[in-house]
Design brief:
Elements: E1 8-11, H1 22-32, H2 38-45, H3 51-56, H4 62-73, H5 76-90, H6 105-115, H7 121-133, E2 137-142, H8 167-174, H9 183-186, E3 191-194, H10 195-198, H11 205-214, E4 222-226, H12 229-237, E5 241-244, H13 250-261
Parallel strand pairs: 1-2, 1-4, 2-3, 4-5
Helix pairs in contact: 1-6, 2-5, 4-6
Length: about 280
């Protein structure tokens, strides 16, 4: 059913426009024998004050984040409690939980960012067609890291080689060859709302409302696409229409958007699931 009142389409980036970093987390858990979704439970369990959340708001520098992120995820006392509660809430049997973990925050974050460096051509084509129609504002609303600036003074020395990291080598390690938000990604949108720039993040209602205010719309005049239920619920409470984009389900999600907007967003494209092009 079409929604003729809509004035804007709001897209999440990681997991919608780009490949989900959750894929890298799942692979890391399998490699190290960590229960599925354990790491994400630990990230979410920290609430608004964890290293991940602070980094997304642009409050801590990169290498400080690495250390704090790894330290928090290695805290099995807290992590096991959060995971046991997650299993209870989901009604699933709790597996044997780790006695100890030594998670390298830099290594995990690097894997996540490299995974998220691939664009989903189904979504990119939809964005281009929406913009070409000229009827809707196209907005990015992302928990992201645009504010990240690698300070050469914080680059550590490699214990193995006795040499220092470089800004260039660290950007390459993260897959950020043009920075965390390259210009060709930003160019897809009429407005790009990045959590680290504005010091707020999803699912904080203020972040959604800021995006609406910047673009001259009311929440009930927007449809929002995201891969995380917690972010969709927050948008829905504000009056936005929402579409869930599960991993591997972008084509189905864009078909739902197609129905809401009443324009063709999917014909004429038969790509592989993800484009080989990197951000």
């Amino acid at each position: 059913m079409s929604s003729p009142h809509l004035k804007a389409v709001i897209f999440d980036i990681g997991g919608v426009v780009c490949r989900s970093p959750l894929i890298a987390i799942a692979a890391y858990e399998r490699e190290y024998g960590i229960p599925p979704n354990y790491i994400n439970c630990s990230i979410q369990g920290r609430g608004a004050h964890g290293a991940w959340q602070k980094f997304e708001r642009g409050e801590i520098p990169l290498f400080e984040f690495y250390a704090e992120f790894g330290r928090e995820l290695s805290d099995t006392k807290a992590g096991n409690a959060w995971y046991a509660e997650y299993c209870r809430r989901k009604g699933i049997e709790c597996p044997q939980l780790p006695d100890g973990l030594n998670i390298d925050g830099r290594e995990l974050f690097g894997r996540m960012m490299r995974e998220a460096g691939t664009l989903d051509e189904v979504v990119v084509q939809a964005i281009r067609r929406i913009k070409a129609a000229g009827k809707w504002r196209v907005i990015a609303l992302t928990n992201n890291f645009a504010k990240t600036d690698i300070d050469v003074r914080e680059l550590p020395r490699s214990a193995a080689q006795g040499t220092r990291f470089t800004v260039e080598s660290e950007l390459a390690f993260l897959g950020w060859h043009e920075g965390p938000t390259p210009s060709h990604l930003r160019a897809l949108f009429d407005d790009f709302c990045d959590s680290s720039t504005f010091g707020m993040r999803k699912p904080e209602p203020e972040f959604y409302l800021l995006a609406c205010k910047r673009n001259g719309i009311q929440p009930n005049e927007a449809v929002f696409l995201d891969d995380l239920g917690i972010n969709l619920k927050a948008a829905q409470k504000l009056g936005m229409e929402v579409i869930h984009v599960p991993i591997g389900g972008s084509r189905e999600a864009i078909k739902k958007l197609e129905e809401k907007l009443g324009i063709d967003l999917t014909s004429g494209l038969q790509p592989s699931e993800w484009t080989p092009s990197k951000m």
